[in-house]
Amino acid sequence: MARARAGSAESTLDGALGMISLKLFGGASLERDGAILSGAKIERFDHNDAASLARVLEQLDSRQAKVIVVDGVYSMEGHVADLPRLQTIYRRVAEHLLLD
Predict the structure, then answer these.
(1) pLDDT at position 63
(2) Which region holds residue 77: left if phi is over 0, alpha if psi is between -120 and 50, else beta?
(3) Residue 25 binned pLDDT confidence (cut-offs 50, 70, 90)
(4) Helix (H/G/I), strand (E/B), else coil: 76
(5) What is the pLDDT of residues 46-65, one digit of tens each?
(6) Predicted TM-score (pTM) of this structure
(7) Are 65 and 39 in contact (CB under 8 A)?
(8) CATH code for the domain defined by 2-99
(9) Quick one: pLDDT at residue 89?
(10) Which of 37, 47, 62, 96 could form a disulfide with 24 if both were Cys (CB 3.0 to 4.6 A apart)?
(11) Measuring CA to CA, how many Å separate 42 from each of 33, 39, 76, 77, 84?
């Protein structure tokens, strides 16, 4: 299952020029591994902060494909992603939203 999720990130990002990942800690993650395998550029934003995500996305080249990759539940922190806000941002400025 773990490799399938990394592969999903890799195939979703294949050919994308931009990539956004929401992570609190800098440790290993399946989403990061998939992004690295795809060759996409990785940009980070503040943990579970939709306003930070929007700022990062708006600073990127508008010609770059953008993929938002987030966890739905951050089990180590006990936080849940604000999916309605993420969906609003995705519809405005990104091509894909990948939820794990």
Answers:
(1) 84
(2) alpha
(3) very low
(4) coil
(5) 888 889 999 999 898 888 88
(6) 0.70
(7) no
(8) 3.40.640.10
(9) 92
(10) 47
(11) 11, 9, 22, 22, 23
